[in-house]
Amino acid sequence: QGQFTSTQALADVPIRAVNPQTGVASQIKLGDIASIKRAYADPPATTVRFQGKEVLALGVSMAKGGDIIAMGKALAVATQAIERDLPAGIQLGQIQDQPKAVTTSVGEFVHVLIEAVVIVLAVSFLSLG
């Protein structure tokens, strides 16, 4: 809620306008006084570089309560489908792979947990005689 889903939704935003000569207030739409279109910022507000080349960066965020591992798998499938349709010379690259980092962290945690349990059991058996 609160996010615009189309340029038309943004154009329909009501704005309060006051006529400076009469002082009478009225309501107009943003689209009545501005041209609204979907486009890239030119010049871009931020320049992103990857491996020394200027790139276009896209951020993919997980929905609240989502499964990061499942999202990573779905993103890999979607990326492969998109890559097939890209024009020559255009490539997709992944700068950061959070699902992989989460999988690695969980794996390391489980490994350390197993080591801790084994050590506690070994010390317990040794102390019992």
What can you see in these coordinates?
This protein has 4 helices and 4 strands. By secondary structure, it is of the alpha+beta class. The chain has a two-stranded antiparallel ribbon. A two-stranded antiparallel sheet has the order 3-4. It is elongated. The N and C termini lie far apart (65 Å).
> What's the count of strands?
4
* Biggest sheet layout: 2 strands, antiparallel
Task: For the largest sheet, list the strands in their spatial order.
Answer: 1-2
- In the predicted model, the low-confidence regions spanning at least 5 consecutive residues are none
Number of helices: 4
Mean pLDDT: 87
Radius of gyration: 27 Å
Helix content: 40-55%
Distance between the termini: 65 Å
Beta-strand proportion: 5-15%
Main structural class? alpha+beta
Oligomer: single chain
Shape: elongated
Task: List the helices and strands in order.
Answer: HEEHEEHH
Keywords: Membrane, Transmembrane, Transmembrane helix
GO molecular function: xenobiotic transmembrane transporter activity
Transmembrane segments: 109-128
InterPro entries: AcrB_DN_DC_subdom, Acrflvin-R
